[in-house]
């Protein structure tokens, strides 16, 4: 039987510490190889010191500790030498076996799956923001120190993207609000809960979040200059068709604020009825009926009332996938080393909440 995977008798991977946490060292990284060669030259250089006009030669072994420290400082300060995981997938195992000891943690998966690049993909942006929001609500203290640092680095990239592109600021505002509330509780109850790192670091992070919130509050949408066809030039049936494509009530309200015509279409009772029927079951309607002054069901108010009691269906352009055959979590476009005869039958899309549940023990 062939042995699939890395030989357990090998010396293992080399790791370097970067600004985003510990990264696996790849031998093909030219920047790191140049840095290591420079450090090797330093470590093998003969060090001369004056002592009563005599030159004393120190052996390389005596300088081993100083050399290691220089290498560590070099990798920490040199941003060009950062190495990232070549594989954009992770094996999810919850218990020890003869081949594997330990288990996969939420922080390890968060570091391995390259969420830093995912926020630049418009299809994955909402997915990553929702995942960060769920972590902020309940799983922040379960992350390792490196994963927490990676978390805030990704959050910084998300905020900068929203400030530059004005893309979906409402999502990131909700995320920062939940995160600041969680941090206030954790900082106030320090000693009762586990916070990795110095308390002053968390206070600085909370101050950074407040700065981000103020920047988003002052965000001004750039007016698009376009002499061609605009949204207002479309016929009514096309505008109505666009509104029926939305699955989020807040998006319908936001679009209705653009023009008086869109506002009229966004107040259509049939539109909100379809939205309620898409997200909720009929049994749930009976428990929270809201009638208007005319005696009709107010479907718009019903939608926001039901949203407080029941989860709505989530839609994302791209999500993580889990292979039931290999127990591997990965982005679908990057793939994974599957040994199944028909890999597509083993794939299962993973929602943000399902991602969190995979690592609960």
Automatic annotation (TrEMBL):
Return the SUPFAM superfamilies for the record: F-box domain
NADP in keyword set: no
Places the protein is found: Nucleus
- Asked if the keyword Nucleus belongs to this entry, the reply reads yes
Pathway where it operates = Protein modification; protein ubiquitination
Q: What keywords tag this UniProt record? A: Nucleus, Ubl conjugation pathway
Protein's job? Substrate-recognition component of the SCF (SKP1-CUL1-F-box protein)-type E3 ubiquitin ligase complex. May play a role in accumulation of expanded polyglutamine (polyQ) protein huntingtin (HTT).
Instruction: Identify this protein by name.
Output: F-box only protein 25
Q: Which gene encodes it?
A: FBXO25
